[in-house]
Write a structure and sequence with these properties.
With 41 residues, the protein is mainly alpha-helical. The protein has one domain. 78% of the residues lie in helices and 0% in strands. The model has no long low-confidence stretch (mean pLDDT 70). This is Small EDRK-rich factor-like N-terminal domain-containing protein.
């Protein structure tokens, strides 16, 4: 039972990571930088 739960949790983490990568493939770092600097502007 515990192994199955760990596998499901790992699968959920992978799916979330993949969805995030699909949303922001290469611009993620730039968007993070811009979001950090926007309050200063």
């Amino acid at each position: 039972m515990t192994r199955g739960n760990q596998r499901e949790k790992a699968r959920e983490k992978n799916l979330k990571a993949q969805s995030g990568q699909v949303r922001l493939p290469t611009m993620s770092k730039l968007e993070l930088i811009f979001s950090n600097f926007t309050p200063a502007i």
